[in-house]
Design the sequence.
């Protein structure tokens, strides 16, 4: 039990230390997906956070906010340990022309549908109450670069 708690502490520390990706500064991020979690948002409800390890800049946390980005990530169901890329395309007018939304392209090397089904269940559970829930097991992926 103590080992499991220690692992949770280590994971929480790593998530706090991961820099959040600034898509306005650098529109593309690519690397290896090293983790995916679900957290309860204070204002907008639960959302996913992806952790991507890049070759050049280290590990980044990517909050999956917004319908377009979330739909693409969930549809791809990226597998922990596989390559992933996210590109921010900018603001686009909706078809009625009365609002703008953020547009994205998401690509992934492999998927894990079962893990993302569980992740979606946990996200739904957070809507009903509860705290942060880890969605996928992190894998020791070693030095991939």
Sequence:
């Amino acid at each position: 039990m103590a080992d499991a708690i220690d692992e949770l502490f280590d994971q929480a520390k790593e998530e706090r230390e991961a820099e959040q990706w600034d898509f306005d500064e650098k529109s593309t991020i690519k690397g290896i997906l090293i983790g995916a979690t679900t957290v309860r948002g204070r204002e907008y409800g639960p959302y996913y956070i992806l952790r991507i390890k890049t070759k050049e800049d280290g590990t980044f946390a990517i909050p999956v906010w917004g319908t377009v980005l979330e739909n693409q990530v969930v549809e791809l169901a990226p597998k922990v340990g596989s390559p992933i890329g996210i590109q921010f395309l900018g603001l686009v007018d909706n078809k009625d022309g009365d609002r703008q939304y953020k547009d994205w392209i998401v690509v992934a090397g492999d998927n894990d549908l079962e893990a993302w089904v569980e992740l979606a269940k946990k996200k739904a559970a957070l809507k009903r109450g509860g705290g942060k829930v880890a969605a996928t097991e992190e894998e020791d992926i070693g030095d991939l670069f």
User: Anything to note?
Assistant: The radius of gyration is 16 Å. Confidence is low (pLDDT under 50) at residues 132-145. The first strand starts at residue 19 and ends at 20. The CA atoms of residues 36 and 136 lie 6 Å apart.
